[in-house]
Structure formats: C-alpha cells, structure tokens
Amino acid sequence: MPSVVFRSPDGTFLVGSDAERRALTDPGRVARQFTNRIGDPTPLRIGDAALTAEAVTARFLVRVLASLPGGQPARVAVTHPAGWGHYRLESLRGALSASGLADVLFVPGPQAVVQAHDALARLEEGAAVAVYDLGGKTFEAAVVRKLAADRFVPAGPPEELEVGGLDFDEVVFQHVVEALQPGWDALDPMDPAVLTAVAELRRACTAAKEKLSADTEVLIPVALPGIATREVRLGRSEFESMIRPAVEETVAALDRALRAAGTPPHELAAVLLVGGSARIPLVTQEVSAQLGRAVSPAPNGMAAIGAALHARGLEPEPAAVATAMWTRPPLPEAPKALRRKRMRLTPFVTAGVLAAAVAGALLANNALANKAGAKTTSITPTAPTTTTQTTEQPTVVEYVPNAPTAPATPPRATTTQPPKPKPTTTTTRPSTTVTTTKSTPPPSSTTTTTSGTTRAGAP
C-alpha cells in the first residue's frame, strides 16, 4: 500500500490507493512519504489541518488495521530504518499510543528482511546477509548476521542516503516537461483542471518508470489543457543515463557498509535487493558488478513478512536489536615517505622519553634525601584533637583517558614512609584540599599535601 493519506474536509482520513484517487481532484489535502519526517517538530499541512509526521503515520496505521478483513490483529509490528535513534522511535511510539496502539513492536527493517529470507532459505548460524533497500524516498544498506534461531543483529553500522524512487519519478516527469515546452510554461498553475491533469501526469510517469523494468521503451500519455501533445516517448537507455549517478551512490554506500562490517562480498550468504526501485535493471547490474557476484531482487513484501514473523513469535531481547557487532574499519595507511620519516624519528623520541623519566627519578631521590629527618609538616592549622567537618559540595573527579607521561620535574607531593595505623584523612573539593587529623602522627612520618584537582580513573 502506498504511503499516502488524504484528509477530507470533514476530518476523515483515506489511505493508500483511495487517497491517491482523491488527490487527483484535491491535491492540497494529500500527504506522501510522511514517514521520513517522523521526529521533525515542524507539522505537515494537510488541507486546513497541521499534523506532525508521527501523528499522520499513526492515523495511517489505524486506518490500515481497521480495513483488515480479519479485524484487529493480536499484535502489531512496525519496521523502521536501522539508523533511527531513540528520539524518532519514541516520537512514533507516543503517537501510536495516543491512537490506541500501545503495544507495537518495533523491528529494524534490515533485520526483518533477513528474518523473512531465513524463513524461505534457512541460514546457518553466523551467516552474514547484505540488504540493499531502495525505497520511495530513502536508501539504506546494512549487513545483518544470524546469531541463533530467530535472532538477527546488525554486523555493522548502516549507510543511508536521501535518494529513492520518488527522485526517479521526478526525473521522468522533468523529461516530459521538457518535451512539452513551450506549452508547459503557459499553463495556469491556479486552474483546478490543470492541477488535476498534472497530478494524473505524475501518476503516468511513475507507471512508465515501472514499465521500463520490463520494456525497453514506453509512451507516457499526456492530457493537459491547451497542449496538443498526447504522448511522450522515453527509452530505457535514456532513463538509465539520467539515474545512473544516483544508483552509483547507492552502490558505493553498500560497499561502505560491507567494509564497516568487516565482511567481504565473497563471505556473504546472500544479497537481498528490496524496495520497489530495486527492481530497476540498472540497479541489479551495478550491484552485481560491484560485488562480483550475481544478484536479483528479493520477493515483494520481505520487510512486512519479517515483521509479521517477529510479531507472531516471541519479542526479541532489546540487546539483540540495539547491540552493534561490528569492528572499526582499518585506518588508511600513511604514504611511504611519511612512514620512513616516522621510523627514523621513533628511536630519538623513545630515547628522549626514557632520558626524561630517568632524570625525573634522580631528582626525586635527591629531594627525598634532602628532606630526610625533617620535622612533620602540615598545611592545615587544625588542632590535633579536632575534626573538620566538610560541606556537602561534591568532590570533583575528572576522568582522563590515556593520560600522558608525567613531566620530568620533581613531584610536588611525596610520602617518605607508609601510613601508620591512624592514617591522615583527606577530603578534596574543587581547587581546595582540606586535611583533617584525629591524632598527632608519629614524629617520623611526613605528610605533604598540595592543593589541586584530583584526577582519577574510571570508577
């Protein structure tokens, strides 16, 4: 069913093909491909109503479920792009809950597709499958791995592009517009008859694009007021030359997804081409050439079948959907000339670091020797029998990963002997150090405290 809704003047909603037909006579009350706007706070204007994309999606789903011949299903699963974050999913979940659908199961689209494929051709555990999804408005490439029975997880981060079948429809439409010049520019954009004819022409362009998947050329019918042209010819070679740059971008995104997942093409158990525009012959040719293996479009409705399998079975663990199983791709190597320079400098840098460390140790030993036998020193003028109460201000602990090597200067804080049974208690606050002593330490112990911010590792 196409993602199209039509809002009537009385507030009722039509969806799918019914909405497409009504849009021919009243195009200002229709919304298409609204799922791509989920999470966008800017509302969609549909007639005299302003609704968010997630609210329109919820209305769409409610109408679809109400039209089912078997009535309301026991469970509902909704697929979504694998790259969607928490905010977009929660926005959609809230809108569905407000519409009476509180127990919807969300399934990443690529995982649903692979689960449907697994039901048709059983995959071995550990098998990796590439998914090339070219939909109406967006493209997504992902690699999914089967861990166990009915458990599928992403093998790497997905790749997404803002390109899809609607862009290819627009290419065909612009081809027709150029063929209708100069009569096209003379049309009145406010004439209802013109608007209806243009909407019908767009539908004809979409149908022509789909026919070119099987035919080598098509004739696009034209019925515009004041224009004598009745048909515009379009060949498959012309169409492919116009969309080739976009298709090449999708193939490059698929290659990036494979490299990010650490999975070469020959290790893939299957390559699934899904989405209406994935049936374009040029897509199959380009993907086959890139991967070095024959590929073909998957059966229709793979994502819906996989979502139904999720809804029929047990709900997967959240970790199975959210946990990424990929490794980082290797970083590009530096040029050989630069690597030679680094190799030459490495011994000198290492020697310098070692010399600095030795010098620091010698200076520290000299400082300890000079201070031997010194009297007890404390920077806190607190009586031996009193205890200083600290405020509730939290201690600042700064985590510094991979802290650099200490400088080759004598350390400012030194303890000459191990602590005694009655140790000194130190409480550190931002930029301030407070030392409290419950009893006078033995004369032989030395405690030196330097103010500063405490640096600590991860808790």
UniProtKB/TrEMBL annotation:
Residue ranges of the region described as Disordered: 377-396, 401-459
Q: Does the keyword Chaperone apply?
A: yes
Q: Where is the composition biased (Low complexity)?
A: 377-395, 403-459
Question: What's one Pfam family the UniProt record gives for this protein?
Answer: HSP70
The protein's matches in SUPFAM superfamilies, at most eight in alphabetical order, are given as: Actin-like ATPase domain
Which chain regions cross the lipid bilayer?
Answer: 345-364
Would you tell me the protein name for this molecule? Answer: Hsp70 protein
Keywords, in A-Z order: ATP-binding, Chaperone, Membrane, Nucleotide-binding, Transmembrane, Transmembrane helix
Which InterPro entries would you find in this protein's record? ATPase_NBD, Hsp_70_fam
